[in-house]
Automatic annotation (TrEMBL):
Keywords: Chaperone, Disulfide bond, Electron transport, Membrane, Oxidoreductase, Redox-active center, Transmembrane, Transmembrane helix, Transport. The chain crosses the membrane at residues 42-60, 72-92, 112-135. It comes from the Bacteria. This is Disulfide bond formation protein B. InterPro entries: DiS_bond_form_DsbB/BdbC, Disulphide_bond_form_BdbC, DsbB-like_sf. It is a multi-pass membrane protein. Pfam families: DsbB.
Amino acid sequence: MDSLRGEKALFSAWLVALVASLSVLFIGEVLGQTPCSLCWFQRAFMFPLAILLGLGLGLWWRDLAVGRYGAVLALAGAAIALWHLALYIGLIPERIQPCAASGPSCTDFNQLLLGVPIPALALLSFLAIAALCALSRKGAPA
């Protein structure tokens, strides 16, 4: 596999991470919706992805091996997003904490973007980033 294809995959992963990070900042800071604790944990994995992948692509390191670190971060974030989505749709019979009437709520219509729940969008974003990072590493030297 040539390095150009790896760079394109990493650039796409970085773009997904950047758009996801900017989107949740917009939702929180501009729209004023306070994230729940699970949303915060997901952000703890998404924000570094935008920085790490951007730096690895050429802003600083120009190192395609950054895809291995991106994949690990993305899969950890995906696990949290999957748990969040399972709570959201009711597969896990536990109330999303601290989603309450006095605080943020992950169960109302404010948490839908184009009809899709934000936890589902987070899961899709993390999985796309992990797949693109893995694709960037396929055939690359260890």
